[in-house]
Specification:
With 169 residues, the chain is mostly helical. It folds into 2 domains: 77 residues, no CATH class; 88 residues, no CATH class. It has 8 helices and no strands. Helix 5 crosses helix 8 and helix 6 crosses helix 7. It starts with a helix and ends with a helix.
Length: 169
C-alpha cells in the first residue's frame, strides 16, 4: 500500500511541485511519513541525492509532531461531540490503544523503537498519538520520536538508496 501511495503522490504532484517539494510533502503525510519520502526520493523514482533527501524527509516528518503532541487529545475530544466525526475519533483512539502497551512497558525506549522500526502502523504520527494519549511529557516524548526518526532514516536510506539504488542505479 505504501508503494502505491508514494507512486500516486509522485505522479499527482509531478510537474507541479519540485522533486524536493514532493518528498517533503510525502514525509508529512500520515502512514507515508519519512519512509515514503525516502522511497520517493530513491533512484527508482525521483532520484534526489541522498544528502539532499535526508534533511527534507526528517524536517517534513518532524513538522507535524509538536502539533500532534500538544493538540491531538483536544481535537479528538472535540470530534467525539460531532456525529460521523465521532467514529473517526474512536478509530484513532483504538489505533493508539492497540500500540499503547509496547510504549507503556518500555517507556522512552519503547517509543524510540516504535517510531524507528519501519513496520506498518508504526512511525512518528502514531508514536506521537500514543505518547499524547499516554500523557507522556513532551520533554520525554519529542526526543524519543526524534531518535526514532533518525533510526528510521538509517534503515530506510539503506533500503531506498542501498537496495533500490543497486537495482536502479
Amino acid at each position: 500500500m505504501t508503494d502505491s501511495l508514494v507512486q500516486w503522490f509522485t505522479t499527482a504532484l509531478g510537474g507541479k511541485v519540485s522533486a524536493e517539494g514532493i518528498i517533503f510533502i510525502i514525509s508529512m503525510v500520515p502512514i507515508l511519513e519519512l519512509r515514503g519520502g525516502l522511497l520517493a526520493a530513491s533512484p527508482a523514482l525521483l532520484d534526489v541525492p541522498i544528502l539532499k533527501a535526508i534533511p527534507l524527509c526528517i524536517v517534513g516528518n518532524l513538522l507535524p509532531i509538536p502539533f500532534i503532541l500538544l493538540l491531538i487529545e483536544k481535537i479528538l475530544d472535540f470530534m467525539e461531540q460531532i456525529p460521523y466525526l465521532d467514529r473517526i475519533a474512536l478509530w484513532v483512539r483504538k489505533k493508539a490503544d492497540k500500540h499503547k502497551g509496547k510504549v507503556e512497558t518500555y517507556g522512552f525506549w519503547g517509543l524510540v523503537f516504535f517510531v524507528g522500526i519501519p513496520l506498518p502502523g508504526t512511525g512518528a504520527w502514531t508514536g506521537s498519538l500514543v505518547a499524547s494519549l499516554l500523557h507522556m511529557r513532551i520533554r520525554k516524548s519529542f526526543p524519543a520520536i526524534l531518535l526514532g526518526i533518525i533510526i528510521a532514516t538509517v534503515i530506510m536510506s539503506l533500503v531506498s538508496y542501498g537496495l533500490l539504488g543497486a537495482l536502479f542505479g
